[in-house]
Amino acid sequence: MERAISNRGNSLAAQIPSFLTVLNDPWCPTTNPDGIVNLGLAENLRINAHALTYGDGFSGSHKLKASFCRFINGRFSPQTALRPSHLAITSGVSNALECCAWALADPGDYFMVGRPYFNAFRTIFGSRPGVRLLEVEFGGVDPFSMVAVQRYERAFTEAKSRGLRIKALVLCSPDNPLGRCYSENVLKEYMKFCSRNGLHIISDEIYALSVWNNPRLPNAQVFVSILSIDLEGIINPSFVHTVWGLSKDFGATGLRIGCLVSQSNKLVLEATEGISLHNIPSSLADQITTSLLANDSFTTNYIEVNRYRLAESYKFATCQLQSHGIPFLECNAAFFIWVNLGAVVKNATAEEISARLRAEGVYIAAGEHYGAEQTGWFRLVFSHPLTVLEEGLKRLTRAIQ
Ligand SMILES: Cc1ncc(COP(=O)(O)O)c(C=O)c1O
After folding, report:
1. If you measure from the C-alpha of residue 95 to the centroid of ligand 1, how many angstroms do you get, rounded to a whole number?
2. Using a 6 Å cutoff on CB, does residue 203 contact ligand 1?
3. Is 177 in the pocket of ligand 1 (CB under 6 A)?
4. Domain residues of the chain, as ranges?
5. Distance (Å) from CA 205 to ligand 1 centroid
6. Please, which pLDDT band fits residue 45 given cuts at 50, 70 and 90?
7. Which pLDDT score, from 0 to 100, does residue 189 have?
8. Using a 6 Å cutoff on CB, does residue 245 contact ligand 1?
9. Which CATH code fits 7-17+58-294?
10. Where does the Aminotransferase class I/classII large domain start and stop, copy by copy (predicted)?
11. For atom 7 of ligand 1, which residue has the closest CA?
12. For the chain, N or C: smaller number of CB within 10 Å?
């Protein structure tokens, strides 16, 4: 039997606070007369002010979990319909990712990521759980192609021979910073690679609904959730974990609501529950999100308008880039464009280009922060109002001329 959890994850699962069963079953004379009367927690509110208490526990209210399930079942087409017992709500997606590190790895273990990658993975996995990143180089191979998986295989074999303990592969799907989606076949290939090597796969789907139309890429791959794939014969489902939240698709980074979905690995969710005091979402954010996700006409309209506006901003930004001869990689998802300023400012280091940008009063992050394989690349965020974008691009083009 493969072990589907680390030693640390196992011991965290054993630490679930016993009073969570109390919070899970609160007494109410009319709706739950057999529930538990909670005289044990220092809360100074009337019982109907549920939203300002510790609620139903530390991993999201029952109502929010139900709202998430309904929403994800409607939008991500999961093979197995999501139930509240399949997920934990956390204070943002960073927290959900960190819970994966706590539960699946021990300090000094490694998670694999393809270059370039979302820079905060280093902090999220590294700073508290002590999990390191094993960066995979593609050497010009398209990271969204089947062949890319061979690069992971090579990096895995080489790292294994150096005695590194590798526990998981982290996919950002759609990708940050490249703004592209993985096809079902490529996702399956990644999962087969994980299965062959006893690795978990963590799919960060935070940009799932921010996929838009790029007329210059008419056949662009659209988003496919890992939840929608039939895992039979591909990977043990207890090795598959997904995170999503409201920070990006609903433009609400300050709301701090995310979730970790692990449909077949109860222990991962128990380990997460074990440290849920550190990840408890605000009950007010919990309430707001519950009603937001339950409002179908609002969410449908919001997602549609968001996609339209992202496409418009992308069109505007890329027209500006083209007219100034700045090369970039086309994409159709998320909020950024991978631009090659090094191709325009010849023989300059990333620091020198960054300094020129700052001198003109504009900031964009250098590819080096994202583990880019080549220097000169920058990640330009285009999801701004047109006035901001226009001013920023004006400054950018001045800086590199
Ligand atoms: C790929 C990815 N995952 C996770 C996060 C963090 O999300 P949150 O603000 O919900 O913690 C971000 C934020 O930029 C992101 O780009």
Report:
1. 9
2. no
3. no
4. 7-17+58-294, 19-54, 298-400
5. 9
6. very low
7. 98
8. yes
9. 3.40.640.10
10. 58-396
11. 93
12. N
* pLDDT at residue 44 in the model: 43
**Amino acid, res. 280:** I
Q: Report the separation in Å between the CA atom of 247 and the middle of ligand 1, taken as the mean of its atom positions.
A: 7
Does residue 155 have a pLDDT over 60? yes
Q: What is the whole-number distance in angstroms between the Cα of residue 217 and the centre of ligand 1?
A: 26
Interval 201-226: pLDDT, tens = 999 999 999 999 999 999 999 999 99
Residue of minimum CA distance from atom 6 in ligand 1: 94
What is the number of the ligand 1 atom nearest to the C-alpha of 176? 1
- The confidence score (pLDDT) of residue 41 equals 54
CATH T-level assignment (fold) for domain 298-400: Aspartate Aminotransferase, domain 1 (3.90.1150)
Q: Is 247 in the pocket of ligand 1 (CB under 6 A)?
A: yes
* pLDDT of 385 over the 80 cut: yes
CA of 97 to the centre of ligand 1 (A): 9
Cα-Cα-Cα-Cα torsion 101, 105, 109, 112, nearest 10 degrees, comes to: -60
Predicted pLDDT at 46: 41
Give me the mean pLDDT over the 282-294 stretch.
Answer: 92
